[in-house]
Write a structure and sequence with these properties.
The protein has 4 helices and 4 strands. With 129 residues, it is an alpha+beta fold. It starts with a helix and ends in an 11-residue tail after the last strand.
Length: 129
Amino acid sequence: MRLLTHNLLACHAKTCATTSNNFPLILKDVQLEQIEAEENEQFIRGFLPKLEWNALVSTARALGDTSLPDKGPDPSEPMLDEGLLRTLHHVLLEIHIVEGQMVCPNCSHVYQIRSGIPNMLLAEHEIGK
């Protein structure tokens, strides 16, 4: 699972259905792998407005990557720093979580990550209506 995916995931358990404290999911006991990916500046630029910057920075730092600045770039800025684009590419697309857990900061529900795939399925009694 890439950090790009992690930045989109939130807990949807019944106890979190009406709260905003269900994001970002906290990574725990993770096994990381670096996998090179072809650079695609247009993709990074297009995804930038969808990013939750503070969550991305805190997650990357929790995993030992301190390359992102505290303040994110303005997505509407036509000229983004090339170094920042490369750093974003690396953090979003080349850091892979192979195994581990994601824990909801609100309800402590644990989502497993196995073979790079996050299991976001909930049991019937955990589903919010």
